[in-house]
Amino acid sequence: MHVFHQADAVARASRHPLLVSHRNPDGDTLGGMLAFGGYLDAIGKEHTRFCADRPGPGYAFLPGIERVISDFDEAQRREPDAVFVFDAGDLKHAVMEEFVRALPTKPSVVNFDHHASNTRYGDVNVLITDAASTTEVVHRFLSGIGARINRDMATCILTGLCTDTSNFSNPATSASALRLGAELLAAGGKFSDIQRHLVKNKSVGILRLWGIALERLRYNNTHQMATTALTIKDFEDCGVDEESTEGISNFLAAVLDAPTIMVLREAPGGLVRGSLRTVEERDVSKLAVALGGGGHKKAAGFTVRGRLAEVDGTWKII
Ligand SMILES: [Mn+2]
C-alpha cells in the first residue's frame, strides 16, 4: 500500500487522532496540521489539534487555529490512539517523545515532513524531502487520496509554502512550489491575508533590533560566511522578545550577497541559538547537525549552551 493510503488508513481506523505541531510553531507546521485537520473534519473524524507552545498572535488568521490546545493533560484525557506530527524532524522537536510513550493507548505515529534530517520516527513516514514545505507534503497526500481541498485548507497549505520559501523567494522555491502556489490561489487561498499577518507585521522595536543585527554584520573570507549576533540585552533595549529575531536570517538571505549567513542570538536559560542560511550548493544542515541541531540543506539551526561575547571584533560563543 502506498504511504499516502497507509497514513489515511491510520486516520480512518483511529477513534481519536491527535495532530501535533512542533514547538515554537511556524506557518508550515501549523498550516500542515490545520490542512490535515480540515480533511479529518471533512470525513467526520473528531480529533485534537495540539502544540506544546501557544501559536503566536500573528497566526490567528489561520482557519481552525482556535481549536489548537497546548495543555498536555487535556490532550491525554482525550485518549488519542493515533498521533500525526507535522514538520518535525524528530519526536523531541514536537515535545512528544515522552508523551507518546506514556499514553496507555499505544498510538500509531504518522510523520508528515520534508526535512532531510528526519529520523523516520513514525510507524508511517510521509517524508518527501524535495517538497518545499510540509504543507506541500500534506497537499500531495490529499491529492494522492483524492481528497477535496477547500478554501480554508488552501490558505493553510499556502501559509506553509510562503513560510518555507520566504514568500517564493528563497532557494526552496521549486517549480512544484510555484505551481502549487498558483493552484492554491485558484482554490481560494488567501495570499494577501498571509502577507498582511506574517510579513507586514514588524513593529518599530523589531526593526530597531534588526538595525542592531545589520550594524553588527561581519564577513569572514575564510568561511565565506556573514555573521551577526544579538544578545538578551539587545532584546531588552528594543523592548522585544527573543522570538522577534524570527525573520532576520530569512531577510538577510533574501538581500545579502554572501554564500552563507549565520545569525547568533542569546536565549533565556544560558542558551545561544544559531540560524544558518545558504544560497549556494552548500549543506548548512551538516554544520547544524554537528552542533546538535538540524534542518535543511539551505536553512538549518542549532542551540548550544553559552553566551555571546565580542572578542577582537568578532562574536564568539563562550
Ligand atoms: Mn517546514
TrEMBL record:
<dbReference type="GO" id="GO:0003676">
    <property type="term" value="F:nucleic acid binding"/>
</dbReference>
<dbReference type="InterPro" id="IPR051319">
    <property type="entry name" value="Oligoribo/pAp-PDE_c-di-AMP_PDE"/>
</dbReference>
<feature type="domain" description="DDH">
    <location>
        <begin position="19"/>
        <end position="160"/>
    </location>
</feature>
<dbReference type="InterPro" id="IPR038763">
    <property type="entry name" value="DHH_sf"/>
</dbReference>
<dbReference type="InterPro" id="IPR003156">
    <property type="entry name" value="DHHA1_dom"/>
</dbReference>
<dbReference type="Pfam" id="PF02272">
    <property type="entry name" value="DHHA1"/>
</dbReference>
<protein>
    <recommendedName>
        <fullName>DDH domain-containing protein</fullName>
    </recommendedName>
</protein>
<feature type="domain" description="DHHA1">
    <location>
        <begin position="239"/>
        <end position="305"/>
    </location>
</feature>
<dbReference type="InterPro" id="IPR001667">
    <property type="entry name" value="DDH_dom"/>
</dbReference>
<dbReference type="Pfam" id="PF01368">
    <property type="entry name" value="DHH"/>
</dbReference>
